[in-house]
Amino acid sequence: MKTKQRNKPLMLAEFVAVMLCFLFVFDWISKTAYRQSTQTIQTALEQIIVDTYAREGRYPPSLESMIKEHGFTYDPDTYMIVYDIFADNIRPRVQVTERSRP
To answer: Superkingdom of this entry's organism (predicted)?
Structure first.
């Protein structure tokens, strides 16, 4: 009977250890997915910029024009996009960052 009582705390400790490992792995996977999402959005914007210049001979004038004319979508609550255009003949700078999570 005493051996069963001793095993209960050990089993509880093992369970807690497994749950902590699970939480750490889940957090790591979540952060990796967000980083990949950011890169995917960046790549899509770069492709739209190149395609527009190749077809029309100009760069997209704004992020809004890419949304309207090319069907680009993203979650503005999750990501912040900086589209910095200097002149018509200079390639714009695009930067995608994830907004901080609460």
So the answer is: Bacteria
pTM over 0.85: no
Report how many domains make up the chain. 1
φ, ψ of residue 25 to 5 degrees: the values are -65, -45
pLDDT in tens, 9-55: 788 888 888 888 778 887 887 777 667 788 899 999 999 999 999 99
Domain span at residue 20 reads 2-98
Element (H, E) at 82: strand 79-84
Contacts of 96 (CB under 8 A, 6+ apart): 38, 41, 42, 45, 79, 80, 81
